[in-house]
């Protein structure tokens, strides 16, 4: 199958060829014709599947005809949960649309709003935005939706996890009801389906990676180790295996900072990336990591989600994720686009509960590899595989405070948080 057979026109095909893409990925093969036809789409797909081009290419195709965008107006709105993802999607829009006379821009929180307001004055055929900043701009009349033709919710599950539901609902209420809506999500939980109801109409449903299965090309195992020795083991693994580009997941922002500092002190150049870092620092860290100037990127889940780092060879879970599904997302960072990857988890006895939940979800016991010199004092019990089906855990309510893509020092609704568990 070729891109030309999907109904894309010459300027877009040229941009795709410039990227070196030869054949459409499965999600692209299904999504592109459906979106060009004007259908609503609900797609279960993670990063690494080519989902971005799956919606950006056909949107460009649709927008290449039709009315010119007016000042402060938007014809297609792409909402993403994090600033990094917004920036990345924005880059893809610019790349794939480079031979078309369409205007696109990106807006997100954590940076000055004024330059964004100025850019929006000319209007944007495509606007990529995080929900909090978009609401700020909308309230200030800097963005208008009466010309809107297409809405995309990218990583909708993560947007809900991050507590953006109120902003999203407010944004949707401000959009014209007659529009095309595309929803992309790694998983389709009950909450996502609830959101989708009334949002998408007779959608084409696409699923390219079965839920909660790990990508086959990824080799993953655990290293049992006492908590106190995790840093030393990580250093040994990096040095012994001569890992050149490692994404390390840390449970907390503080832990990420500390670990990056400890690695740096051992001569392993490392940077932390998380929601408390300024946007400039996060962009710089990611750019340095991509170009190989930084060897280890220590990230929290939210900061790492959706980062497109091509063919990342090595992922390390310094801490196991609290929510088992996040294990699949995390290790999905490696082995992308058919490249082989490795994911190693450093697991201490206190994490036995998390380990069991992951094994239950994957329906397999994870391979254990002990490292000489790191024998455990506090034993990690033998796994007993629980074969009952896993029930997906509800994500934790976010704390009040500054988070990705959100207004400063407020929760997503700009109000005091309600107690947990009442969504
Ligand atoms: P995504 O899932 O959108 O984050 O895309 C993952 C990566 O796949 C990106 O680096 C894209 O540049 C790349 N990609 C997307 N579509 C194709 C394709 N048809 N052929 C080769 N690479 C692709």
Give structural notes.
With 423 residues, this protein is an alpha/beta fold. The chain folds into 2 domains: 3-207, P-loop containing nucleotide triphosphate hydrolases (Rossmann fold, 3-Layer(aba) Sandwich); 212-368, 3-Layer(aba) Sandwich (Rossmann fold), CATH 3.40.50. 34% of the residues lie in helices and 16% in strands. The strands form 2 sheets. Strands 3-4-2-5-6-1-7 form a 7-stranded parallel sheet, sandwiched between helices. Helix 2 (26-36) runs parallel beside helix 3 and helix 3 (51-63) crosses helix 4.
What is the secondary structure topology, with strand pairs?
Blueprint: H1 10-18, H2 26-36, E1 41-44, H3 51-63, E2 74-79, H4 83-96, E3 104-107, H5 114-120, E4 124-129, H6 131-139, E5 150-153, H7 156-161, H8 165-173, E6 180-185, H9 190-196, E7 204-207, E8 218-224, H10 230-241, E9 246-249, H11 253-265, E10 270-273, H12 279-290, E11 296-299, H13 301-304, E12 314-317, H14 324-331, E13 341-347, H15 352-362, E14 367-368
Parallel strand pairs: 1-6, 1-7, 2-4, 2-5, 3-4, 5-6, 8-13, 8-14, 9-11, 9-12, 10-11, 12-13
Helix pairs in contact: 2-3, 3-4, 6-8
Bound molecules: adenosine monophosphate.
Residues 21, 24-25, 28, 47-53, 308, 310, 337 line the site of adenosine monophosphate.
């Amino acid at each position: 199958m070729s891109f030309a057979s999907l109904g894309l026109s010459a300027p877009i095909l040229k941009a795709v060829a410039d990227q070196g893409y030869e054949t459409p990925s499965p999600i692209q093969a299904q999504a592109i014709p459906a979106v060009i036809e004007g259908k609503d789409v609900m797609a279960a797909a993670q990063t690494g599947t080519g989902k971005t081009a799956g919606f950006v290419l056909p949107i460009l195709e649709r927008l290449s005809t039709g009315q010119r965008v007016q000042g402060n107006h938007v014809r297609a709105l792409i909402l993403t949960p994090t600033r990094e993802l917004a920036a990345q999607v924005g880059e893809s829009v610019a790349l794939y649309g480079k031979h078309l006379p369409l205007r696109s821009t990106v807006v997100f929180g954590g940076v000055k709003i004024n330059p964004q307001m100025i850019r929006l004055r000319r209007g944007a055929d495509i606007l990529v935005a995080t929900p909090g900043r978009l609401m700020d701009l909308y309230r200030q009349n800097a963005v208008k939706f009466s010309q809107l033709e297409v809405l995309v919710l990218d990583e909708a599950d993560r947007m809900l996890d991050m507590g953006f539901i109120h902003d999203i609902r407010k944004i949707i209420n401000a959009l014209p009801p007659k529009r095309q809506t595309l929803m992309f999500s790694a998983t389709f939980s009950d909450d996502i389906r609830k959101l989708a109801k009334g949002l998408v109409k007779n959608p084409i449903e696409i699923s390219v990676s079965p839920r909660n299965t790990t990508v086959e090309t990824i080799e993953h195992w655990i290293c049992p180790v006492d908590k106190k020795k995790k840093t030393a083991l990580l250093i040994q693994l990096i040095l012994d295996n001569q890992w050149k580009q490692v994404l390390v997941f840390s449970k907390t922002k503080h832990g990420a900072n500390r670990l990056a500092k400890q690695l740096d002190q051992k001569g392993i150049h490392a940077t932390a990336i998380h929601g408390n870092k300024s946007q400039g620092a996060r962009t710089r860290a990611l750019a340095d990591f991509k170009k190989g100037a930084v060897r280890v990127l220590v990230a929290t889940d939210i900061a790492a989600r959706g980062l497109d780092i091509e063919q990342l060879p090595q992922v390390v879970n310094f801490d196991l994720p609290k929510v088992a599904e996040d294990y699949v997302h995390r290790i999905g960072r490696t082995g992308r686009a058919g490249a082989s990857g490795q994911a190693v988890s450093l697991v201490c006895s206190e994490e036995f509960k998390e380990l069991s939940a992951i094994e239950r979800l994957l329906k397999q016991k994870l391979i254990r590899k002990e490292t000489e010199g790191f024998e455990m004092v506090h034993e990690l019990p033998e796994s007993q595989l629980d074969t009952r089906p896993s029930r997906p855990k509800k994500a934790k309510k976010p704390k009040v405070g500054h988070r990705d893509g959100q207004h400063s020092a407020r929760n997503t609704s700009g109000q005091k948080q309600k107690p947990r568990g009442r969504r």
